[in-house]
Please model this.
Amino acid sequence: MADTLNFQVCYILTCDRESRYAAYTLLSIALLRRLYPGVHVVLLTDPASKKVLESSPTGLLQAVDECVQFATSDPDVTVRSRELKIRARELLQGDFLQLDSDTLPVRSFDAIFESSGDLSVALDRNHICPYPHFPRWYVGTFQQLGWSCPTPRYYNSGVIFWRDTQASREVSRLWLEAWQQQRRVAGIPFDQLSFNHAIDQLRPQVVELDIRYNALIRASPWFGEQASILHFHVDQFGDTLGGGDLLGALLQDWEKTGRVNWETVDRSLRSRYSWLTPPDHLSFLLRTGHYRRGLLLLLKKLFQAARKPAMLRDYLQDKLRRKNRAR
Model:
């Protein structure tokens, strides 16, 4: 097992009012400490957000071992969080694991700390292309910025293990410069484009993590099977996308009781996926073994389509568009 005395995990959070992101971070920390009781948890935030958190009912500041502040000037809370995420390697000493707030560590992940690279990350996936790929919808943005594309690999920045090396700090420096250029020229605040550009330019020693260490379950529910770190996609309002997933269920219980429902966690771990109640989406239901619900949903759609031929036409056209996008 990883040496918990030297093992640190960093979370980033900014807020201008009470939000669900604080609760998500707290839940992630609770599950992390269940696996590694001696872990050193660092919260990276800014002074304005810290004032909000001091009166937060989540008690997040009491749940971390260290709170590091860095003053950011942008009024947009999302932009501030992205800047802190990018600066994390610059602001922290030593090796550390950086986790997005919408991740849940559910099984041990010792193998991450055994890597010898400058940084360790998993390849990106999404619901349009649940396999490693360069997102073609960003080709125009890369060209606008004068960046080469497609990059040989396209990584997800939600789970990063940083070694404290000169090369990793250079990646952080270029990542910040590229992100600032990206915002200025293209008006895009997301951090992943510039992250991949920095890696492509500097070519540090990157260790590719297995999908179970960054299980992007919105790309495919099967990624949650035997995963160590589940990664959910939370929208800008702090809502999980799709409902019925483990993170959403834990949040509901926490908002009612102020406690982590460990029975819900254990029930999810016994299943083959991280959806407690999969949404009424035919492919999700079939891929997660809910065949009866899937059949009933299909019959319902066919019955509705039979009554309204235009609905059947629209349904088939939508399926065709999705199939073409995935190519």
